[in-house]
Amino acid sequence: MSERTDRGTLAGRLTRVGVDDVPRAERLLADAALVELLPGIADVLVGALPDVADPDAALLAVAKLAGAVRGDDALADLLRATLATDGPARQRLLAVTGASVALGDTLAAHPANLHAIVDETPGTAVPAAQVRAELLTTVGADPDDEMPVATLTGATGTDAMRRAYRTRLLRIAATDLTVTDPLNRMPGVAAALADLAAAALEAALALARADLPDHGAGVRLSVIGMGKAGGRELNYVSDVDVIYVAEPAEGSGVSEADALATGTRLATGLARACSTPSAEPALWPVDAALRPEGKDGPLVRTLASHRAYYERWAKTWEFQALLKARPLAGDLALGRSYVEMTQPLVWAAVQRENFVEDAQAMRRRVEGNIPVAEADRQLKLGVGGLRDVEFTVQLLQLVHGRSDEEIRSGSTLTALAALASGGYVGRDHAARLAVCYRFLRLLEHRIQLHRLRRTHLLPTAEADLRRLARSVGMRAEGAQGLLERWRQVRRDVRHLHEELFYRPLLPATAQLSAEEASLAPEAARARLAAIGYRDPAGATRHIAALTEGVSRRAAIQRQLLPVMLGWFADGPDPDGGLLAFRRLSEELGTTHWYLKLLRDSGTAAQRLARVLSTSRYVADALTRSPESVTWLADDDELEPRGHERLQAEADAVLTRAQEPVPATQALRGLRRRELARTAAADVLGVVTGQRAAQSLTVAADVVLAGALRVARWEARAARGLDADPTRMLVVAMGRLGGRDMGYSSDADVLFVHDPMPGADPRAAQDFALAVATSIRQLLGAVGPEPPLAVDADLRPEGRNGPLVRSFDAYAEYYERWSSPWESQALLRARPAAGDDELAQRFVALIEPLRYPPGGLDAATVREVRRIKARVEAERLPRGADPARHLKLGRGGIADVEWTVQLLQLQHAAEHAALRTTGTLEALSAAGDAGLLDDADRRALVEAWELASRLRDANVLWTGRSHGAHADVLPHDRQALAGLARVVGYPSGSGSELEEDYLRTARRARTVVERVFYG
Q1: Can you list the alpha helix ranges (DSSP code H) found in 377-512?
Q2: What pTM, to 2 d.p., does this model score?
Q3: Which residues, 6 or more positions from 532, have their beta carbon under 8 angstroms from its beta carbon?
Q4: Percent of the chain topping pLDDT 90
Q5: How far apart are CA 167 and CA 106, in angstroms?
Q6: Each residue of 460-473: b (16+ CB within 10 Å) or e?
Q7: Is beta strand 326-330 parallel, antiparallel or unpaired with respect to 747-755?
Q8: I want to staple 580 with a disulfide (CB 3.0 to 4.6 A). Which of 304, 453, 498, 619 is the partner?
Q9: pLDDT digit string, tens, across residues 705-751
């Protein structure tokens, strides 16, 4: 009974510390060798297992080790003392045996390695020369010899070297597995593994020399490390990538052919010592596939042969691989000569045609070759894996490293830190990428350690995942927590990889010469003149102002400007674009986000260059509201804001407001922001034509409604009223009514009021007049925000009539005195702000005027045509070319609008679709009703759209929203080129645009003369 209770207690304790196979663990703890070594072993050992990766494996390894030390009193005493004492030695032993079945077996096979385990001397940060000497001495070679030769030869020497390698590996693993912060120690572990691999290669070369009768005398052979070995970031189990270089020793009399033959025998013997079967397990394959011509090329080449290949035949990926080249073993002086020879080629490779695109395509190919079953488990090659980090870092190095030696490092993490320090990568991005990379490498190390097998696949079995979680310090989170973190790391890495690896700056930078990329003054001036800058000297001064100094801001500008100068030159005004960029940068340079956005965004820098060099209007708008630059990184931010969203924003502004003028300035600021958003989107081709016009109209509607609210409040306050004595309505007219607003459009309106029941009509009129006057003053007054001119000239009697009328007065006027031009103007009347019920009544009032039942009689049609002819004769500015006036000229906006409006007046009563305030909608309806054939409709639409676009383009190009220039197609070649770029024509298409407009207008005028004038 007592024994069962004790067993039950032991089983519970074993379960609590994480043992899976409790019965086997109990048998192991009762093993004769273990009990003989340390009676009461269970009480000593079980409590030490909670932090072990795999307690089952640790117990089994300790039991095997106890059996292995039987008969060796010294080792038995050492093991007994290690197990009995709660200290670093026991922690190291259990950590290694719990994390690595393979190293546990190594201990059992060679129990003397227990000395290496319990030795607290760190296994990392050991000088590489010490490790090299250790392995050379093991095979009987003198580390101080110029060409060490082993005295232990054949299988005996190979096995001795492999045992020494495993002993050193145990030391590294013991340190690695017992540190409190394995992520931070990972680079040191990887470097120690790379140094150990280099020492093993040196010892293997000594063994290979011993196999030759003359020990390879007269032949210099260098083993160049590539990949992770070259970068000092090796895994526990990995192919060791190498390239061999051989030369005859000076004065040796050995021919080049003989030197290559001897070098080949030495390289073959070296690889055999590391990887062929023997009594001791192989270390790893020595892979020379990265050599010129790969496996089809000779194993060993001379320095000159390597140079010839790289200069003539090497592919893009080979230069990327050479980033990590480093002499590992053999003749180090020859190895350094090889690196010195290849490095200039590496840093010039970026100028090869399609270099960046080839590197990006290679990453996609690697990813595409992963077996489907492995895709979600691949630590190395898969989405969000190690290759995403490494390819990103290497591409940034290759693009920017030709002009910045500070970022030339074979170590991924060292290079990443240098890229961050130099401003090529954001500090936060670099920090996150580094943490993710360390985590992925840590997982890779722990997975490989388990059985010392080369694998990059995350396990799937629950027990394996649990062991892995415990080995990386995630015991509490367990298997599920490990998987969740792994998935998050993959997402983060892939996001950062796509953001950095596919930057448009990279291929653009790669196409520059080294002088252009460096912004050397003379080269910069020559380039600026060649690509179209009118004042290269002035542009050079701007460049100097932006890039001088050692600040991070200047460093990032030095990355951006070589490319952006070319992007400015793609626009019609590169000098203006660069000047605007300087002003904007000086305004925003101290912010944390501006240059980071331009460097990291996939679109922002190129878009900024485009808008600044194409539109002075947008350049001024961005300078005035610099935070708007963020829109350029996201199409959604450039999309027009809907009426409800802007109205809600205006409501929030007015709810907080205490004074009318600041409140109205805030409303005008809202419109200014939307003008800037729409203008930027227009120049970039994201939102053009009618969508842009509707966006501008919505902003004007919202501001009018807000100004009406402010003016009513102000009028009540001035009169001491608690409520309005009259209902107010603002009716949109003209382009505002048709939702066709442009950047230079005024807000054409009518003001209508309707006194409240019982209100004094005179007081109501006075109130309404005060409100209308206030709206015009509030929105049109000079101030910090752009004005919106409110024009009421389309009211009854025009400027001679009262500014505001009552509903009844409008009804009386329209019944008694309305003229045809007023009916025509009312075709575009649309309630924009004010009382909804009054709006419905006003629309009902004007319906018979603008859509007269039975259409127009012949006399009225003649009157409309007479007025149009008079407008053409009298309103066209003196000296203006009728063919080039966009608004009043032949085939221009007025021609099209008068034509469709006449059709509306004649036929809208019977065709409901014609009852619209929009010009394009009315043209479409006229076509559907058979009033226009398809060719005529298309000619009118094309002319109206192009003329409207060109009016807006005049404003966007010049930055001037008022003046006669907006209505004229210019003769100036530069202005035509600017307009062409604004409306989306290719560079140098000013003449083509001119011809297109004149032809389109002629066609439209032909239709107008036939349809309008009959």
Answers
A1: 386-400, 412-421, 427-451, 462-471, 478-501, 505-510
A2: 0.81
A3: 569, 574
A4: 85
A5: 9
A6: eeeeebbbbbbbbb
A7: unpaired
A8: 619
A9: 999 999 999 999 999 999 999 999 999 999 999 999 999 999 999 99
